[in-house]
Structures are given as C-alpha cells and as structure tokens.
C-alpha cells in the first residue's frame, strides 16, 4: 500500500515536470518563430537596399488588395527605426550595416534558444523513459 | 476533492492560488518592462553613433515628427530612468510574493499530507 502510494507520487512528480517542460518548450518555440520573422524582415530590407545602387529610381509601391502605385526615389537616405519609437536617417550603406548587425544578433539568439530547446526535449525524453518504467 | 478538506486548508489553498496568480501577473508586467527597457537602451546606443546633425524622427501615432538628437537623447534617458525604477519596484513585489508563496506552500504541504494519510487510512 505504502509502496503503491510512493509510486503514484513519483509518477505524478514526473508528469508535473513534463508539463512544465512542455510549457517552456512552447514558449521558446513561439519566441523562435517571432525572431525568425524579424530575421526574414532584415533579409528583405537588405535585399531591397542592395538593389537600390544603380537601379532605376522608379518603382511600384504596394497599397493593398494586390494593387500598386508608381513612385520614384527622391533621396539617397534611408529612414531606419532605432527602437523606442525613434527613427533616424542613414545612408544606404550605414543602414545595410546596421540591419546586418541586427540580423547577426537575432541569429545568435535563435541559435541559443534552439540549443535550449534541444536540452528541454532531451530532458523530456528522459522523463518519459522514467515514467514508462512505472507502468 | 476540495469539499472534503477542512476549511482552514481550503482557505490556505485559495490564498496559494491567489499568490500564484499575482506572481504570474507581475512576471508578465516585468517581461514587458524589460523588453521596453532593452528597446530604449538599444535606441540610445544607436543614437550615440549618429552625427549631432543627423535627422531624427519620433513616431507619434501614425506620424513621424522631426526631432533633435540632443532632445531625443534626454527624452530617452528619462524614459530609461523611469523604466529602471518601475522594474525595481516590480522586482521587490515579485520577491515579496515569492516569499509569501513559499510560506503558504510550507504551511500547506504537511496539512495536505496529513489529509492524504487520513483518506488512505
């Protein structure tokens, strides 16, 4: 009777730990998805800035519903968000440099999160193995 | 199950749940403030790298309003100070709640164990 109770408590502990790891894993996964979206945004911005040199000054700007209006670039400056609702004018090269640095920082964070996620999954696997031994 | 528990235990369980909810709410606020603080610090760092005459714009609603570097720096520094202060207050509250949670947990565990033994016996 006492043994059965201890066994039930042990299994309950493992299940609780598994739930906690599952919640952490989901939160990390969400963060990774968000950061990945920011990285794709940096890549798109760098591609656009890369095409500005020597390209035609005329372009089509999307206005929604699959429609575009004609526009032409009248300045060599790029307005770039610095954070906290502040933006500053930068040259194309400065903007490319800043975006590239931002992308590198984000990539490092994703790398770290993926490593953490791997460790969590490994830990969950160990716990599942332990839980199966109770059956 | 809670109906079978004595009222004192039920009351403490409710307090424990309340403390947990408060801790979660504080954690959420803290995460949000930390993000705002990092964003402000990053903006200040980037601002430092710019020329004094660089064109700076501040987003107000949908509009971008031209601003000066020095004034923007002062504004961001003040914002950082306020965020730091609010964060410290939240950290103090968080510690208090955690302590309370731990105390309640320590009081409740032996009571619940005792109830469990009664049920088994």
Could you tell me the radius of gyration of chain B in angstroms? 24 Å
What is the H-and-E element order of chain B? HEEH
Q: Total strand count of chain B, please? A: 2
| First-residue to last-residue Cα separation of chain A | 16 Å
**Chain oligomer state:** heterodimer
Task: From the structure above, extract its key features.
heterodimer, A: about 140 residues, alpha+beta, two-stranded antiparallel ribbon, 2 helices, B: about 120 residues, mainly alpha, Helix Hairpins, 2 strands
What report would you give on this structure?
- The complex is a heterodimer of chains A (135) and B (121).
- With 135 residues, chain A is α+β, with helices and mostly antiparallel strands.
- Chain A is 70% helix and 19% strand.
- Chain A is elongated, with a radius of gyration of 25 Å.
- The two termini of chain A are 16 Å apart.
- The two termini of chain B are 16 Å apart.
- Chain B is built from two helices and two strands, in the order H-E-E-H.
- In chain B, helix 1 runs antiparallel to helix 2.
- Chain B is rod-shaped.
- In chain B, a hairpin with a 2-residue loop joins strand 1 and strand 2 (63-67).
Short description:
With 135 residues, chain A is of the alpha+beta class. Chain A has helices at residues 2-52, 92-134; strands at residues 58-64, 67-72, 77-83, 86-91. In chain A, strands 1-2 form a two-stranded antiparallel sheet.
Write the layout of secondary structure elements.
The complex is a heterodimer of chains A (135) and B (121).
Chain A: H1 2-52, E1 58-64, E2 67-72, E3 77-83, E4 86-91, H2 92-134
Antiparallel strand pairs in A: 1-2, 3-4
Helix pairs in contact in A: 1-2
Chain B: H1 7-49, E1 56-60, E2 63-67, H2 69-120
Antiparallel strand pairs in B: 1-2
Helix pairs in contact in B: 1-2
